[in-house]
Specification:
This protein is an alpha/beta fold. It is built from 12 helices and 5 strands. Strands 2-1-3-5-4 form a 5-stranded mixed β-sheet. Helix 4 packs antiparallel against helix 6 and helix 7 packs antiparallel against helix 8.
Length: 303
């Protein structure tokens, strides 16, 4: 009898473990992604979007789907946003799947012309997203500003934590800053590297003085051969100062943004003046992942 009870207990615990990620998120049966669908999709566009997201209609349930509206896009973009980047109606849609702890953030896009995957990774890491596979799609060419709020609405649905509007708005501003720099750089990778590296320098050295953040921004931009307008520079200073005030765990944030730092490492930039050796990043990120894997094993042993 005791053996039968023990077997039933272990079966129940196995079932619970299958429903939990290392962070404790409850995942829907079948591990279907959590989705934010544009509220202004036509029936044909909705069908196309589901195809782009690699989903079948039967995978959508009330528990896994939320709505993304044009009002969301305008709200999180802020009053000073370039209106040409915003849509009259919202057709951008996003899906989010949990990944194993230590995997970081991955982003795949379809029909998004203004923002690159690495730009989204930077912004979503700022929002606090961890270890998630994200798809951001549109049935028509779109600048992609609503991608941050859409991904975070789906992520919030997944982890059960409410969105922090001020943080999502700031991160959307971070995305649009990268897009603005990319527009005249005619390159999407370097603006993303600029954002990620400046964030790392500021957080690694706890730089709160605007003049020092400005100096670091100009130095990194120069090394990346990027031209910053005065407005770009001041927006960078403001955003980085606000991120520092959030006091995020820099190790977690960096691991989420690893693809961005790997790009920068290949360019051979010199950040040793800020206590950062990019040449050592391969070893550094390997150690970070090992640390997360060790913590995950510890969590599971408790179960």
């Amino acid at each position: 009898m005791r053996n039968r009870i023990a077997a039933m207990f272990m079966a129940a615990m196995t079932g619970m473990a299958a429903m939990l990620t290392p962070e404790g998120m409850v995942i829907n049966e079948g591990n279907a992604p959590y989705v934010a669908l544009g509220s202004d999709l036509t029936e044909d566009e909705r069908e196309e979007v589901l195809g782009l997201l690699e989903l079948e209609p039967e995978q959508l349930t009330e528990d896994t789907v939320t709505e993304l509206t044009a009002e969301d896009e305008r709200h999180y973009a802020g009053e000073d946003a370039d209106r040409e980047l915003l849509s009259d109606g919202c057709v951008i849609s996003c899906s989010v799947r949990p990944l194993e702890r230590g995997s970081g953030i991955t982003v795949d896009t379809r029909n998004i012309g203004g923002a690159a995957s690495e730009m989204y990774i930077n912004a979503l890491a700022t929002c606090g997203m961890e270890d998630a596979g994200v798809m951001i799609v549109s049935p028509v060419e779109n600048a992609g500003v609503a991608g941050v709020s859409g991904a975070m609405k789906a992520y919030s649905k997944m982890n059960g934590h409410a969105i922090e509007p001020d943080v999502v708005q700031m991160a959307t501003g971070e995305l649009m800053l990268q897009m603005a720099i990319a527009a005249y750089a005619e390159d999407t990778e370097r603006p993303a590297e600029f954002d990620g590296l400046l964030k790392r320098v500021v957080l690694n050295n706890r730089i709160s003085d605007p003049a020092e953040i400005r100096s670091a921004a100009l130095d990194i931009a120069s090394q990346l051969d990027l031209r910053l307008t005065d407005e770009d520079t001041e927006r960078s200073v403001d955003i980085m100062g606000r991120i520092l005030e959030m006091n995020p765990d820099i190790k977690i944030l960096m691991l989420q943004s690893e693809p961005v730092y790997m790009l920068a490492r290949e360019r051979g930039l010199d950040l040793t003046a800020y206590g950062i050796d990019l040449a050592d990043d391969g070893t550094f990120f390997g150690k970070l992942r090992a640390l997360f894997e060790k913590n995950e094993e510890s969590d599971q042993s408790v179960l």
